[in-house]
Amino acid sequence: MQLTIVSGLSGAGKTVALRQFEDLGWFCIDNLLPDLLQPLIGHALAHPSPRFACIALGVDARANAREIEDFPLFVDALKNRGVEVRVLFLTAENDVILRRYAETRRRHPLVGPEVTLAEAIGQERRLLKPIADLADDVLDTSHTNLHQLREAIQARIETSPQRGLALTLLSFGFKNGVPEGVDFVFDARCLPNPHWEPALRALSGRDAAVAAYLDAYPEARDYAADLEQLLRRWLPVFANRDRTWLTVAIGCTGGRHRSVYLVERLGVALRDEVGSLSVKHRDLGGAAP
Question: Higher-confidence residue: 51 or 228?
């Protein structure tokens, strides 16, 4: 089991960090009381499961002072149980945190009737000092935008259940409407249509006879090659910009021959290029075998 405890000042980016862990397949809980660390990890150790292989937990100033003071004892106890524990602490300059709260208009957890935001930030620094002193990695986000912070967090995650981009290749028929929620749509209706060949009409783009028919046309081969080149060029760019998934839809008239042929061909070509790949045919009734 690998356990990363994410802590830090309010407004420094803890929520963004935890979401990055979650996007990479880690089991995540935010605002966990330190007193619950041992029972939670004890349960995970007693019930081995892939979902508990990598756990990220958020601990912050919403815990009480006694729990935070005892935080080093919790960590030592977990390490003694064979858990690989890493503490990531996020911080930022006071004026940066003040500006972020002014922009979001959210309430700092320590602000009260007699405690200003500036005073609350100072209190939080003192309160979280036992965690900050124990941190394996301290990340200052003062001059980091949202995308840079995600990249910095991802660079610090050495092991994840899901690494790389998850790509879905989807075939469909334009006569049944363009699918929603896709990132790219390509139109294959310009290619020769096997539907007009009586011997191929009942088959699909998965069948060797349909693939052979389309392979015989240079424009079909070029279309597939151009799509493959485009995706090979840009998939790494999307992955480096914090995208964890991407859906590419290819349509023909009925979603049975040309689009299926292209999706199947791209699935074979790109399977080793992404973290996970899913090939689906909407108008053939689901995922490819």
Answer: 228
Contacts of 285 (CB under 8 A, 6+ apart): none
Q: What is the pLDDT of residue 50?
A: 85
Nearest to 57 by CA among 77, 79, 30: 30
- For residues 181 and 51, is the Cβ–Cβ distance under 8 A? no
Q: Give all domains of the chain, ordered by start, each with its CATH number.
A: 2-156 (3.40.50.300), 166-287 (no CATH)
pLDDT bin (cut points 50, 70, 90) of residue 127 is very high
Q: Residue 285: is its pLDDT beyond 70?
A: no
What are the C-alpha distances in Å from 149 to residues 17, 194, 241?
A: 8, 49, 11
Are 188 and 259 spatial neighbours (Cβ–Cβ below 8 Å)?
A: yes
Cα–Cα distances (Å) from 146 to 87, 95, 143, 165, 271, in that order, read: 21, 17, 10, 19, 30
Burial class of residue 18 (count of CB atoms within 10 Å of its CB; 0-12, 13-18, 19+): buried
